[in-house]
Amino acid sequence: MARFVYLQQHRRLLRGCLTAIALSATIAFVPDASAKLFDSPVDRLPAIERDALRQGRVILNGEKGNYTVRVLVNGSVDTAWEVLTDYENFQQFLPNIASSQIIEDNGNRKVFEQINRVRAFLFTKNARVRLAITETYPQQIAFSLVEGDLKSLEGFWQLEPVSPYPSAPPDRVLITQQVAVEADSGGSTFYSIFEDALEKTLAAIEQEVKQRSNQYEAKVFELQENSTNTCLRYY
Question: What's the pTM value of the predicted model, to 2 decimals?
Fold first, then answer.
């Protein structure tokens, strides 16, 4: 009789444990009702743009001098910020830029001058612009024309971290550029050239962010490996 009572108590205890495990598993794997499944900066865009961005393509919207350009890059916001604010080295990784240098540096407010090499048909022309920059780390970089070979130019860069799924740490950055430009002459030819330059610039930025991210990861791996080897030798 005592053995029967013991077995009954054991079964009840086992059932209780299994119920607790099942409940824990349910809590662990059922999504939080308050979580938003489609709330990343990319997911808010139209489906056709979402797909294109995830395939690594540059998206350009707008016409006649008013544009929004986007690209999704693999890397951190800090790396993307580093690339976009590397003013004096733009000519090393951005297309059609002959030179770029900072003229004034007042912390988050700067003025830099850039010489663009514009190719149209069989002709090549250099165009100079001097831009005033206001940096709002790490979200936005606003720019406006101070002087140069354009009638007007203003806009901003925006950086938004993107996670692979809700609550996960971000592993990509949506880079958006909004720009309004007006030339003294050139009309539709100028805008066609400018649109092409925008797409090539965003593609080059995507490549530079990816390259710097890979270099950073390789350096971290090397430091970790050296540290491990040092510890092994010590012990």
Answer: 0.79
